[in-house]
Design a protein that fits this description.
By secondary structure, the protein is α+β, with helices and mostly antiparallel strands. 20% of the residues lie in helices and 18% in strands. The chain contains 7 helices and 11 strands. β10, α7 and β11 form a beta-alpha-beta unit. The chain starts with 10 loop residues before the first helix and ends with a strand.
Length: 358
């Protein structure tokens, strides 16, 4: 998603208006336009260069297949844990949550013994030690912040977690259905985000990709292997603009899937790390609805979701699907030792990377 310019009122006029508004002058609060929101952000972070006039700054996913080499790969320094090829876009954490290699080598039993099965879909993966669903997501202890009391912050944190459930864990959403519960938590007055979501869910494209916000699989292609999604991550908060409570979630989700037609017992895993920043705004300063947040930013790094895939669904690949190998850097999709920005920058512009394990 790029940025849009709205050439109408000079920046200086917007800046003066926003300063007056925050000082208590001016008329009743209004939903800030895209330009106003971004100028306001620049006022808050004057050391940063100006950005495009968007409420959110989605990071386009690096798209590329991730191949898991088969055979005696220890000779070439790669770890075989599964046969599922897929797309590189992310990092996650080891079994202890410290990033890095995690999980270790297959050991004396050999790679085949570490392959996932329908009975043990997380076998051979650090995710076997992660939490099930929301149990793997730690939430910061609430305290009074900005315009909210401690109780209100606790409610905002709970609702932020509800959004993660509605966008990345809800079984119906994972089957490709519309994420109604997640959408109900998003500020309906945030027009640019509402436009994006409407286009992404209606007619997915490279520019409007619902996978940036929601985890969805095509029912005709794959189904979850079991009813458990493994997670690891956290939800934190701080005071944001105009006294808002700014909540950030950074969570890695591990989805084991099998072919929908039942023609094979092979289990493939899609690993998606998502970072979402939500602003719970003071309704006296920003037009919003009770129990909804303004979306500030969202990013996703996903492994084995499909290369150059703009269908609106993750398209995991199995061993028989691969046609060539990736050319990008080798990555560990379970490494959570670095920020998403750092890991995505390290990937460069590679279309297809190589994952060290699934």
């Amino acid at each position: 998603m790029g940025s849009k310019d709205e050439a109408s009122i000079p920046d200086e006029e917007w800046e003066r208006f926003l300063r007056d508004a925050e000082a208590g002058a001016g008329s009743a609060p209004e939903e800030p336009s895209a330009r106003a929101r971004m100028v306001g952000r620049r006022l808050r972070e004057e050391t940063r260069p100006p950005e495009g006039w968007r409420t959110y700054q989605p990071v386009r996913r690096r798209r590329g297949k991730v191949w898991y080499l088969v055979g005696f790969v220890l000779a070439v320094g790669l770890l075989v844990v599964a046969l599922d090829p897929g797309r590189f876009i992310g990092w996650a954490g080891d079994g202890n949550g410290n990033g890095g290699g995690g999980g270790g080598l297959p050991g004396a039993q050999g790679p085949v013994a570490q392959l996932p099965t329908t009975e043990e879909p997380f076998k051979g993966s650090p995710a076997v030690e992660w939490g099930d669903g929301t149990a793997g997501i730690s939430v910061a202890a609430p305290e009074a912040t900005g315009w909210m009391s401690e109780k209100q912050v606790a409610e905002a944190l709970d609702q932020s977690r509800d959004f993660l459930v509605g966008s990345s864990l809800d079984p119906e959403v994972l089957r490709g259905e519309r994420p109604e519960k997640a959408l109900a938590l998003m500020n309906p007055h945030q027009e640019d985000v509402q436009d994006f979501v409407g286009a992404a869910l209606g007619e997915p494209s490279e520019e409007n990709d619902p996978l940036l916000l929601f985890s969805r699989f095509a029912q005709s292609e794959v189904r979850l292997a079991g009813d458990v999604v493994k997670t690891r991550g956290d939800i934190t908060f701080k005071e944001g603009k105009r006294g808002a409570v700014e909540v950030t979630s950074d969570v890695t989700y591990v989805y084991p899937v099998v072919r929908a037609d039942g023609g094979s017992d092979e289990v493939a895993r899609t690993v998606a790390r998502r970072e979402t920043v939500m602003s719970w705004d003071d309704p006296s300063k920003v037009i919003t609805e009770k129990g909804t947040f303004t979306l500030l930013s969202y990013k996703v790094d996903a492994t084995n979701g499909g290369c150059d895939n703009f269908t609106g669904y993750f398209l995991p690949e199995f061993s028989a699907d691969r046609t060539d190998e990736g050319s990008g850097p080798e990555v560990d999709p379970y490494d959570r030792s670095t920020s998403m920005d750092t890991s995505m920058d390290a990937a460069g512009d590679a279309e297809c990377g190589i994952a060290s394990r699934s």
